[in-house]
Amino acid sequence: MLKTITILMLISASFTSLAQNEAIDLLAPQEEPQMPCSIFESKDWKAWIETQPDQTHVLNITAEAMLPTPGFIIDWKKIDQDENDGQDLTIALTTTPPNGIVIQVITPTPINIQMQTPENTLSSLTLLCADKELAKLTGIKAKD
Length: 144
Prior knowledge:
This protein is mainly β.
């Protein structure tokens, strides 16, 4: 009985010491962990700008990505850049795996992005996924 009490006291003291030495601020903002990019390979990147009848401009981007299973969702967001003159654009892609059990087979998946752009030309367009640069396209102009 005395051994059990001694062991419990040692365990309790260890946890108390650990808690005091490695305090974690649970109220501090935490960075969202960056999800790894599931795109193994991408190809056939194309980008062009269409001028609409109301003189607005739409940037179109297409490509094909190789993903580890069918059912992945590819989302995108424009990355705001400081000191940008509107001629350079960076887009970050994210991949979300399917729910449930799916067959493990490398699957070609189309990428189709359309977004408003204030300009009818872009000097460069960079496409990222996590820490990977998938493509860098230059000299993107409105189609006549």
